[in-house]
Amino acid sequence: MIRLLLAGYVVVEIAAFAALTYFLGFGWALLITLGAAAVGFAVLGRRARGLTADLRRASRREPTDGEPASDAALFAGAALFTILPGVVSTIVGLVLMTPPVRRMLAPAVERSLVRRASFVVAGVPGGMGRRYVDGTVEGDVVDQTSDVVDITPRNPDGSVYIDLPRLPQSPVTQP
Predict the structure, then answer these.
(1) Is residue 132 included in any domain, yes or no?
(2) Number of domains observed in the structure of the chain
(3) Are the C-beta atoms of residues 139 and 148 closer than 8 Å to each other?
(4) Going by C-beta distance under 8 Å and a sequence separation of 6 or more, which residues neighbour residue 84?
(5) Structural domain of residue 66, as residue ranges?
(6) Which among 52, 101, 69, 99 has a CA at the least distance from the CA of 171?
(7) Which residue, 165, 16, 18, is CA-closest to 89?
């Protein structure tokens, strides 16, 4: 999947540069590409300073402009797109940094962060590199030669029911 995304990125960026070269010439295409990178890095630096100030205020429990966790996650994605070479990725990164897009994507990012945090806390398989759930196996030994009788609570489809502790709902996702 990652190879496919990487190949798609390369194809899109080469096609964009080829289109710029065809319509404007190589010099203008190169100038636009370098200019987009310069603008992207300038906006990235400015936004990083603002995000750092928001995170400091949040750590002191002072009011901030938005949700620091979702803003940090969106900023990480925008920074990745901005740093990648090419006009298209820089434009995508700059669009992700705009306040209307951040407001639109913040609830989805917040839900994802809460879900991922509950996986890390509970130790659910597949959550942040953990591959097991700590616990005990319940059962009764009928005799020396028999197997353990499984009394594990199960879902209707046969999968094991695991009661996971939940984190409190974030203010964004509460009804």
Answers:
(1) no
(2) 1
(3) yes
(4) 9, 90, 93
(5) 2-122
(6) 69
(7) 16
Q: pTM above 0.70?
A: no
Report, in angstroms and rounded to the nearest whole number, the Rg of the chain calculated over CA atoms: 24
- Does 133 reside within a domain? no
Both tokens assigned to 123: 């130790």
Contact 50, 82 (CB under 8 A): no
Report yes or no on 164 lying in a domain: no
Please report, for residues 3, 47, 107, the alpha-carbon distance to residue 86 in angstroms, rounded to integers and kept in the order given: 18, 20, 29
**Closest by alpha carbon to 15, among 54, 7, 172, 47?**
7
Average pLDDT of the segment spanning 121-139: 54
CB-neighbour burial class of residue 137 (10 A; exposed 0-12, middle 13-18, buried 19+)? exposed
Express each pLDDT in 6-36 by its tens digit: 899 899 999 999 999 999 999 999 998 888 8
Determine the Cα–Cα distance for residues 62 and 80; give it in Å rounded to an integer: 28
DSSP state of 139: E
DSSP structure string for 8-28: HHHHHHHHHHHHHHHHH-HHH
In a domain, 145, yes or no: no
